[in-house]
Design goal:
The complex is a heterodimer of chains A (332) and B (124). Chain A is built from 8 helices and 13 strands. With 332 residues, chain A is of the alpha/beta class. Chain B is built from 1 helix and 11 strands; from the N terminus they run βαββββββββββ. The chains are: A alpha/beta (332), B mainly beta (124).
């Protein structure tokens, strides 16, 4: 299979929705020549017809969390759901990158939190919602309760020409993937050509972003060694409660904002991790969702994956002027 | 495992002779002459929360959990130890680089786990 280069596939252009991220994927179903031939072959490999679509990333709702710095509970999460439902183009998927709930040692309380998470997330008018666990969902019981509600903690699926891989770096209680999951990942990706579009979604960063804040995955290098064999890999993650972009080799890593409270930029902070203080005037500041569009490769040199982050604002919280969305500078 | 249990002043004298400064916490010298530093892990803090070692000086860190399982992780010093719930374990370290490092609990132990850490200062 002849493979176009990376730039013919991927572009992360950005605007910000604040409660998550919307991605759009437009595999060039109408492309001709080498690119069209590649997508045709890719569709055969994945069993999915290549076609444009968009999806949303939500992260870190921490349902059940109460107390400083954020007294709003599930309000940002619920507003994010409303924003997803108000999108002009209905997304095909929602990916939730962990910490759906806040931890508790009381199993019954945690069950109620997971039920509440499901009740809110099911209000979204989207066909498919996929999850990975965060340490607050699964760190205390090795993911047992999470699996009862959401199924396996790592898996993959194909959607319209994009291969999605859910990685679990929390249920071993430590920030790690582990050898068993790593072997599974290698096997899972083996059937794909080098240029296949791959979206990995996980909770913690797969690289050393800030190890002393536990913003890392201890065997992330092993994962990256596997992913580095592919030209078009995007990693979406949560955990750090702020947006962040990082490129390692040809792999792009993007962190989504939280739906409960924000952490500050770690650069220049030498001490412990502290949340951004709650701002009564702008209670949803720095919280948001992400939309993602996969555009395919209409032309050599153009790139098809674009990201928009959208922030929920104080206006939105007060309900005076409805949802106020604003665009941010393109990430790429 | 036998240990010499000197008095506090005796301990400090020994540590001083070994070129090791221990700021806080309980310390011992193992029968093999290697200093032992006791560190207790309890949600969501280590005690002591700061120790100072000497570059090239081998020490044993005796780690005890007073409650649940904790982790003890610091990549630059190749420390990656599990501290089982209610148990004690040991890890030997010979720091090869000077500086100030943050050891974290990397075994999720509850809501405030993310800030459970301690400092190791390694002097030249």
């Amino acid at each position: 299979m002849k493979q176009p280069d990376r730039r013919s596939f991927l572009k992360i252009a950005g605007t910000s929705l604040g409660i998550g991220v919307l991605y759009s994927a437009y595999p060039t179903a109408t492309a001709s020549g080498e690119v069209g031939s590649f997508f045709s072959d890719l569709g055969k490999a994945s069993g999915e017809k290549v076609a444009p679509f968009s999806f949303v990333q939500l992260s870190d709702a921490h349902v059940g969390f109460n107390g400083p710095p954020d007294p709003l509970g599930t309000k940002a999460f619920e507003r994010a759901v409303e924003m997803v439902n108000a999108l002009p183009q209905r997304p095909d998927l929602v990916l939730f990158t962990g910490d759906l709930t806040h931890d508790t040692e009381d199993r019954n309380v945690h069950i109620e939190r997971m039920k509440q998470f499901q009740e809110i997330s099911r209000r979204m008018n989207v066909p498919v919602i996929r999850h990975v666990p965060g340490e607050h969902d699964a760190g205390l019981d090795s993911g047992a309760l999470y699996r009862e509600f959401f199924g396996e903690s790592y898996y993959s699926f194909d959607h319209r020409g994009v291969h999605f891989v859910a990685l679990d770096n929390v249920t071993r209680a430590k920030p790690e993937i582990g050898s068993e999951q790593l072997a599974w990942l290698k096997k899972d990706l083996a059937r794909f050509p080098k240029a296949a579009p791959i979206v990995v979604f996980t909770h913690r960063p797969l690289f050393d972003l800030r190890p002393d804040w536990e913003w890392f995955t201890s065997d992330g290098d092993d994962v990256m060694n596997v992913l580095s064999a592919y030209d078009n890999v995007t990693v979406l993650y949560g955990h750090i409660h702020r947006d962040d972009e990082h490129q390692i080799g040809s792999v792009h890593h993007y962190a989504a904002r939280s739906l409960i409270f924000a952490f500050p930029d770690p650069n220049g902070i030498s001490g412990p991790r502290k949340p951004v203080p709650f701002d009564k005037e702008h209670p949803f500041k720095n919280l948001g969702l992400r939309t993602i569009s996969f555009n395919g490769a209409q032309q050599p040199g153009t790139t098809p994956l674009s990201i928009e982050d959208v922030e929920v604002t104080a206006r939105e919280f007060r309900g005076i002027n409805g949802v106020h969305q604003f665009l941010r500078n393109p990430l790429v | 495992m036998s240990r010499i249990k000197p008095s506090m002043s005796g301990r400090l004298a020994m540590l001083s002779l070994l070129g090791l400064t221990l700021l806080t916490g309980t310390s011992r010298v193992h029968a093999d002459g290697v200093p032992v530093i006791d560190i207790t892990a309890k949600r969501f803090a280590f005690s002591p929360d700061k120790i100072t070692l000497k570059k090239g000086q081998t020490v044993k860190l005796r780690l005890h959990s007073e409650d649940v399982t904790h982790g003890f992780f610091l990549r630059p010093l190749k420390l990656d130890q599990e501290i089982p719930a209610g148990a004690t374990t040991e890890v030997t370290v010979t720091p090869q680089q000077a500086g100030s490092f943050t050891i974290i609990c990397d075994h999720f132990c509850g809501a405030n786990h993310g800030n459970m850490n301690m400092t190791i200062k390694v002097e030249e």
